[in-house]
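Aim 2, interim progress: modelling of the 2-acetamido-2-deoxy-beta-D-glucopyranose-bound target.
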Amino acid sequence: MKLYVILGFLILVELVSSLGLLGGDATSREGQPLMGGYSEQNLDLLTSEKKNYYINAANKAIEMMNDVTNGKPLIFQKLVSVRTQVIAGVNYDITMKVLIDDKSQICHVLVTNMLNNAIPGGTWSVVAQSSNDPCAPYTSAPEQVHIMKRSAHLLGGEGQASSEDMGVQKAARWALEHINSMSNSLFRQVLVRVSNVKKQVVNGYRYRFQLTTAPTDCLNEPENKDKGLEECPVSNTGKIQDCSVSLIYSLEVYKMETFSCKPSSKKPILGGDDHDYKPHGLLGGYDHGKSFNGLLGKDLQDFLPHGQPYFMPRQADQNNPLSSNTEDRITQMRIGGGDDHDYLPHDSGKCTEYREEFIAFKAKHNKVYGSYREEAKRFMVFCENMDKVKEYQRLDQGSAIYGATKFADMTETEFEKQYLGLKVPIGHSSAWPAAEIPQVSFPVSWDWREHKIVTPVKNQGSCGSCWAFSTTGNVEGQWALVNKKLYSLSEQELVDCDKIDEGCNGGLPTQAYEAIMKLGGLETEQDYKYEGHDEKCQFNKSEVVVTLSGAVNISKNETEMAAWLYKNGPISIGINAFAMQFYLGGIAHPWKIFCNPKSLDHGVLIVGYGVEKGEPFWMIKNSWGSDWGREGYYYVYRGDGTCGLNEMCTSAQVKKK
Ligand SMILES: *[C@@H]1O[C@H](CO)[C@@H](O)[C@H](O)[C@H]1NC(C)=O
Ligand SMILES: *[C@@H]1O[C@H](CO)[C@@H](O)[C@H](O)[C@H]1NC(C)=O
Ligand SMILES: *[C@@H]1O[C@H](CO)[C@@H](O)[C@H](O)[C@H]1NC(C)=O
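Predicted structure of the complex, ligand included:
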């Protein structure tokens, strides 16, 4: 129990410290959070990470209210204000804009996240602050706080349970696979029996039991997953083990709380009749099996060769693997339907709905994972991502389509590390003069790709070198416009030789222009090939094809950006890459609250603009290959500074040769 308390506490501490509430004054000497008053959160000053805590709380509230409504689901639109209070958990006093029956309404609710030792993340409740609040019909009266259906409070203490309980059997089966997957043993363990079962109703069930497992001759490999004794004979070497397991089954998902295995103290007695540790009346008799098999004196009735250790084989009756008086026995268990060839975790709860999609995704993108463990992990990531995709889809104001791109099996953190890399330093080193905005009338749409000054979409690979691609893309366009020759230029030169920037760890186009001038120019892609990792600088000045004379800082006004672009060529920009990991097409238009215009993390290139079904957009060249987005391009709403695309617009300048 102690562990859960500590875990629960750690979760709270983590939450509270990320809320910024745990200061010297807010904790007692023991480090316990103290009761305190509300503190107002200034949404404009928060980092997006902190803001996400409140958005998460608001979304929890919406989710709970949607559990109650019979009509159209309520849709979260915007946080208006948030106050927080540390209790044994956190109270969020939230004012938010909510779409109720297609009407935008302001709701004022109290969302409570109570620390609950039994439930990771605690329990949530929501209550409207007044009875005439538009959200009031979907929350309960203040005195009878609505506890989220899915995270009900602890209902009862721990009780005994039978190993025949179907829930126990499924849990044991899941635990066995989990233990095998965590084991570095070469050989697979199979289940011999389940004992000391305790069951507790929590948010779902907590099961605690002891598993006795036996080593087999099957390798502990994915292809042997779910195999039992008849396919995996018990090995004569290896150790029988006893594993103490505590797990939670909630929302159709199993979560291991703790488990520990040690060699079993019970020694199998060869030749003995005590394989199930129950006294049998008659040696050699058939009293422990249920059916008379006609062979008196033979020990076949339980399908177990005696004279062997005590492992129980699969029972004859598959529908009732544990017949009534075999409480101590458990068969090795397989998952019915033979659906076990894809190595995906079964019983994976809500993820089950994404299995087909994951299989299609793997086929489409030729994904091969090195091990079962890796594949299972990637499936879980995929599943979480697909949930996010639904959310992004729901929240986009434009026509964007989000889905399983080739990056759909990466966590956001992995993705950030490998594919983003715009580093905005605190004290910006390069400053460039403001660009002159041409006083021209420009057409309704313009696409520089049609004018032979844009190279095909490139692929940065797993290197945070987007800034280098944004830079070369711009320089390629400038050179082609001024000197009528389109070169594909070298990003690797920048990754290796630009010492102002940080190679695969990120950089800035504004600094790269400066570095190119210092170096003496850019080589071609062909002469200085892209490797996608940091290497020693191999710059060769005699191979330089393009030199720069300076750079300019372009307006943040999107009308002026379009005028400049039409007259002068593609613009290097920084953008917040929110949801780009899952962009498939359409015109992206995320809300500002999710896509902070001040958090630029990706360098790309605007090559044109237009209007599609009434929506004005920018066409943006990305560097994630042409099999991402719209043939490698990202179309983003034009006109309201979406995702900060107008915050860092620059271009190199070149002289006529
Ligand atoms: C460009 O101009 C803006 C102000 O309009 C300024 O904040 C920014 O630092 C400038 N950037 C460069 C690289 O000169
Ligand atoms: C630099 O490039 C030139 C022209 O391709 C070549 O002749 C020379 O060997 C190169 N130098 C080095 C050090 O690679
Ligand atoms: C943007 O620039 C255009 C053209 O110079 C101007 O008419 C417009 O008022 C500017 N918009 C803002 C918000 O400054």
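The pocket of 2-acetamido-2-deoxy-beta-D-glucopyranose (ligand 2) is lined by residues 540, 542-543 (CB under 6 Å). The domain at 158-335 is CATH 3.10.450.10 (Nuclear Transport Factor 2; Chain: A,).
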